[in-house]
Amino acid sequence: MPKVLIVGDEAVNGISHMCNPKKTRVISFPGDTVFDLTRKVLSLTTDQPDIESLDVHVGANDVAKQKSEILKKDFNILLNTMGKLKMKLFLSGPIPSPQWGDEKHSRLDMINKWLIKSCSASSVTFIDNLWIYWQRFHLFGRASLYGSALSSPRRTGTAPA
């Protein structure tokens, strides 16, 4: 049974081939927001009692909506939900899309700074993706805005898998 569960939006598509299926399970919910994924976290971990580590990757779909205060509230609920779990917890921050301009980058930077503080006050380790991917178009594949970015060699060292 897998010991690591990676759950997220479309950003986790395409990374399962880089993970040992005996050790890691990857579940993608394309289009999910923080609110959507929060409702699924407890049942996903309950259904897989052998999980020792959870990596949640979500937020890019929310940043695109430009509602920062709602997003912070939703992330707080997610962090509280994750805090109920008895395992290693990771929150992987949103990856900036190659098409995002300065306004969305600024919004994502503000959210990341807030997430760093919020995660450090909880039992969740934050994985900051902002500066790894910002304007590094070569890390993104043709098939997806996010899929190959998370499966790039630079990303594999930061995941708990």
Automatic annotation (TrEMBL):
SUPFAM superfamilies: SGNH hydrolase. It comes from the Eukaryota. This is SGNH hydrolase-type esterase domain-containing protein. It comes from Xiphophorus couchianus.
